[in-house]
Write a structure and sequence with these properties.
Blueprint lengths: L1 H10 L3 H15 L6 H14 L2 H12 L2 H7 L5 H20 L4
């Protein structure tokens, strides 16, 4: 997993996107039986579609960091916060359906 995450980070457009994609992919694979290609897809897709604060919410939600979620919630429009907070719940299925396994 670490080699693929390093490759993902190298291919991302910005350092923030690279770090976020890698961290999200790592969180996805940590303590789960989700296949590595799906976790990489989850990370890549988030980095491509979300703002910096949205990425922070996604990662905090995935890792159970409620304090960060609560810190960011009042700083974001609800239209930006809700998709980020719910991202992981749908992203795994979306990536699996897209053939990332």
């Amino acid at each position: 997993m670490k080699r693929l995450i390093a490759a993902l980070a190298a291919l991302s457009a910005t350092p923030l996107a690279a770090d976020s994609a890698a961290a999200i992919a790592e969180a996805c694979g940590s303590g789960s039986n989700i296949p590595e290609p799906i976790c990489i897809c989850v990370g890549e897709t988030a980095a491509e579609r979300m703002t910096e604060n949205q990425l922070r919410v996604v990662l905090a939600t995935m890792t159970g960091d409620a304090a960060t979620v609560e810190e960011l919630r009042p700083q974001m429009e609800m239209a930006k916060f809700l998709p980020a907070a719910a991202y992981y719940a749908t992203a795994v299925a979306d990536c699996a359906m897209a053939g990332s396994n």
